[in-house]
Amino acid sequence: xxxxxxxxxxxxxxxxxxxxxxxxxxxxxxxxxxxxxxxxxxxxxxxxxxxxxxxxxxxxxxxxxxxxxxxxxxxxxxxxxxxxxxxxxxxxxxxxxxxxxxxxxxxxxxxxxxxxxxxxxxxxxxxxxxxxxxxxxxxxxxxxx
Length: 145
Hints:
By secondary structure, the chain is mainly α. The protein has one domain (32-135). The chain is built from six helices and no strands. It is elongated.
């Protein structure tokens, strides 16, 4: 994967430029955040791959579906990997900055749908369609959904 090579290249360049050797201990204060961000961005990449129509909807629809599903998938993967996860309240707070209008109750409803129906089948596209129709039921979605 080119991305992993680029990350290693960054470390190598810093080490060369400053004539030092970095270890995991040097990243101790930021390691959890680096892993969390990488997991989150990997979830966005998975969504882009498994939900091809996500780029064909309006910006508002794209942002809502992409950001919500990335967090649902992130929580699932965090659990599998034994990593800490955000609470629904933390996710809703973050989503509000995009701005994605969603309540904790709505997020919980979508999380339950993911855990009980779509997640076990690894059906990201089905969950994306469900999320879009649940949050934005009256909006025109075009032929892509």
